[in-house]
Amino acid sequence: MANPLWGKYEQLRPAQIAAIRARTPIAYLPWGALEWHSYHAPIGLDGIKAHGLCEALAKETGGVVLPAVYVGTDTIKPYKGFHHTIEHNAETVTKLCLEFLQQLADEDFKVIVLVTGHYGGCGRSLSQQPSPNRFVGNAGFGAAGRRISQESCGARRDFFSTSIQTRIGGFEYAAGRTRNHSG
Q1: Who contacts 8 (Cβ-Cβ below 8 Å, separation ≥6)?
Q2: Which helix (H) or strand (E) holds 14?
Q3: CB proximity list for 162: less than 8 A, separation 6 or greater
């Protein structure tokens, strides 16, 4: 059985997870919301881009990438006309996120990198919590995201989420349908 440097947690065998953790005890936790992103983008864009960035990081550093967690708060659901959005309350998001972090720490991961593709989610909820010793902070898109955005769209940074999607996606756009928000 091969012992890879990194892997997708749900696809690895127990011995592979143990070998990766022994070498590089990093767990990447992508987080996103299910919400309207216009006609050109999938509903799960937040988690897709967070997961893609986690994979890119893990390929460079080693570690395991968990499946994206689609539990977001502060989505666009309250705004009239934005359908296809699943909203959770902040307490639910915070509790679930803390449980993920605690269980990953219990699994003996020394570094847990939380990458949020949606600001109104786990990262913001945790930024308002006292930090336990094992939790340092979260990672948004930062320099890696800006680099991917710049490579994909050049100066058109207003299309940041779309550029991330283009770079790490693998799905088709519904081109030309971006104005009507009621779909």
Answers
A1: 55, 64, 65, 67
A2: helix 14-23
A3: 40, 41, 153
Strand partners of residue 7: 64
| CA distance linking residue 107 with residue 10, whole number of Å | 14
Residue 122 contacts residue 50 (beta carbons within 8 Å): no
- Give the 3-state secondary structure of residue 8: strand
What pLDDT is attached to residue 38? Answer: 81
Residue from 48, 8, 5 nearest 28 by CA: 8
Instruction: Give me the residues paired with residue 8 across strands.
Output: 65
How far CA 48 is from CA of 32, 42, 155, 171, in Å, comes to: 8, 9, 23, 11
Q: Is 143 exposed, middle or buried (0-12, 13-18, 19+ CB in 10 A)?
A: exposed
Judged on CB neighbours under 10 Å (0-12, 13-18, 19+), 38 is: middle
% of residues, the chain, pLDDT over 70: 62
116's CB contacts (< 8 A; 6+ apart) are 31, 32, 46, 50, 122, 123, 124, 138, 139, 140
Residues 38 and 118: their CA atoms lie apart, in Å, by 15
Q: Rounded to an integer, what distance in angstroms lies between the CA atom of residue 50 and that of residue 48? A: 6
- Model confidence at 1, pLDDT cuts 50, 70, 90, reads low
